[in-house]
Amino acid sequence: MPGAGKTTVALANFALQRARGEVSRLLVVGPIAAFEAWKTDAAACFDSSPMISVHLGSNSAISQRTDILLTNYNRVASDYERIRSFVASGPTHLILDEAHRMKRGEAGVHGRAVLDLAYVARRRDILTGTPTPQGAFDLVALMRFLYPGQDRSILPPSTYDESASREAEVVQAAGQAIGKYFVRTRKADLEIPEPEWNVVRRPMGAIQAAIYDALKGRYRGEFELPKDSRRNFDRLGRVVMYLLEAAVNPALLTAGSDVADETGFVHPPIELDGSEPLSRLLENYAQFETPWKYEYVREAVAAAARSGRKILVWTTFVRNIRVLAEELSAYNPAIVHGGVPAEDAVAAGQTSRESELNRFRYSPDCTVLLANPAAAGEGISLHHWCHEAIYLDRTFNAGHFLQSQDRIHRLGLEPETVTRFTLLVSEESIDDFVDERLREKVAVLSQLMNDPGLVRVALPESDQYHDVPAVESDDMSAVAYHLVGR
Fold first, then answer.
1. Global pTM?
2. Which of 112, 144, 159, 309 has the most beta carbons within 10 angstroms of its beta carbon?
3. Per-residue pLDDT of the chain (486 residues; tens, 9 = 90+)
4. What is the residue extent of each domain of the chain?
């Protein structure tokens, strides 16, 4: 479970293995955002502080005197030979933090690199609060890392059928198979007070709704294309990005992705010839209408400032962060996204993620943190300073959604603390279909992990606003239903 003290337990396990002479060093592969927690917890857990080094890539030195080496998935893949040499040159304990990031396994560059490292490590462990964000198939790569060459003797054959990854029988069989291979601490066991959920559904403004309808009409035919080719799937992925943007702020459509957006969200500006209705609607949108979600966030931040509270705003798109940063400038917003470098890689005079997070934590003039889950959804603790979060938008990525919640809802909260989450949903838009698909994925994770309380804690009560048929298990089927009705 995120926020349940996994880092501390992992360090204790490393200390035990080292005392027994089983290992001599620790390599942690995880998101950059989690490095701060490893450094802080290591300093607090050991009488004599271990030598901690951060691997910055192929141009950085790796001292053989290092006790704990921190690196991320990208850097392992790009500097694999040196990392492998470090692991092989001494008995090394290898830990994957937020291990769901390598769920693609051999099909992904990052997954392939860490799977190869598994063969030279003396001991392997994984840490993740969301091991199966898409379904049972996500377990395959994790088991291949933990037990190289033995995964098929552990997992039932049905687990390897990705198209059936969320079917009830497959989930049940996989859950039973992995029961003895993991330890999960549930939030109910930690006595963390349950959060309050507020789902705000409002109609889009007249111009925004017209733009959205025009967008649906334009791309309806795209979902008649076969999805088996990489090119067609990428095209459909861009359509999803456009729909998500239009449900928040149609002005984003003509800009395309920001240079700081995560790789998975990169997309070009929408192509317009200047004569179609969509072009005319977009041309002057910002002059005539303000997106209702922006207005809601502005009012919520102002109210928080008046009462001395801090508030966290999540959004997928960096361009939303940039626009809101200007609109909320009076509240000195802190900003964390993929374009804000970590402390270890920051240039002189440049703002770092850590400095922005600390400004949000400790500066009374900084009322709001604007962040995207891809960059700040893991490894960060804000629960002592902030108890309210707003989701401007969400994607189909259940891992991002669950992990982001636990930045402010985690171990250490006082029993009387009320944590509030607000979901902003544009009516008759892709937002509703994202919501339903996330519910399905969280329910599957709950069953796999034998944690019924996960659904209750991680999702608001459903009001059955949309009855999306479970025709297929992939997310594109939900989008297709939204566009073409089947």
1. 0.74
2. 159
3. 444 578 888 999 999 999 999 999 999 998 887 888 888 888 888 888 899 999 988 888 888 889 999 998 888 888 999 999 999 999 999 999 888 777 665 566 677 888 899 999 999 999 887 777 777 888 898 999 999 999 999 999 999 998 888 888 888 888 888 888 887 766 666 677 888 999 999 999 999 999 999 888 888 877 666 666 656 667 777 888 899 999 999 999 988 888 888 877 888 888 877 767 788 888 888 888 999 999 999 999 999 999 999 999 999 999 999 999 999 999 999 999 988 888 877 777 788 888 999 999 999 999 999 999 888 877 788 999 999 999 999 988 887 888 888 888 887 788 889 999 999 999 999 999 888 888 888 777 777 766 665 555 555 654 333 333 322 346 777 777 787 765
4. 6-187, 189-202+289-469, 206-285
In 3-state terms, what secondary structure has residue 25? Answer: strand
Nearest to 377 by CA among 170, 154, 130, 19: 130
Q: Classify domain 189-202+289-469 at the CATH topology level.
A: Rossmann fold (3.40.50)
> What are the C-alpha distances in Å from 32 to residues 59, 352, 364, 428?
17, 12, 26, 37
Contacts of 283 (CB under 8 A, 6+ apart): none
